[in-house]
Amino acid sequence: MDLGLKDKVALVTGAGSQIGFGKGIALTLAREGCDIIVNDVNLEGAEQTAAEVKALGRKAMPVKADVSSSAEVNAMIKAALMELGRIDILVNNAGAATPQKPFTETTEADWNADININLMGVVNCTKAVIDHMISRQSGKIVSIASTVARTGGVNMTLYGAAKAGVSAFTKGLAAEVATSGINVNCIAPGPGDTGFALQAPPGFLDMIMGIIPQKKFTTPQDIGNAVAFLASDVSINIVGQTLSVDGGLTMY
Prior knowledge:
Strand order of the largest sheet: 3-2-1-4-5-6-7
CATH superfamily: NAD(P)-binding Rossmann-like Domain
Structural class: alpha/beta
Radius of gyration: 17 Å
Strand content: 5-15%
Largest sheet: 7 strands, parallel
CATH topology: Rossmann fold
Mean pLDDT: 94
Number of strands: 7
CATH class: Alpha Beta
Helix content: 40-55%
């Protein structure tokens, strides 16, 4: 099936990690014919991903910006529009989590860190591109939440709350801009075959694997495929949804 993404311009935030969802998303969209604005706070990582995008025959623009800073995001969007002319697709992928700990041990600094990157990063990037999309009466916004936003997680209260905010933000914005030709949706990945697996405490991965019906972790390619679908007009009638991509973890 042709997704109709050829020559679209996509901004993928947090695409610098070489083992993360962002790179998988960027490369999948590039294979579908998109030119990619590759964002990360780590410019070297963004440049590595951009090089792989270019190797696929597509344009790539690596940009360093901290999505939790509206000033840096606005500068990134301005530069991207000057170089590539438009942004058809925004993928709000950038995210991070403070070290897992009981809620009673968390600090205001922990809360600010989790909310600023995971929720306000989505808000900042969306705010910076939404008027451009409305003016063109066209656009796709896909944000990355987490299964933890639905299930909660021991010692992951802050992260789960921030990611739940992403899902709620998606619904509200989708309702506001649906008549402007803009689709806004969200993906909730399951435990990932990414840096998540490298940072998990002893025994945690075995425990999680035991409750995933499909008995596999979510890969960057899994998420890239889901993003490509939601970024295309094939999914034009899907509005304000959070799609679980987690091997069946949250189907119950």
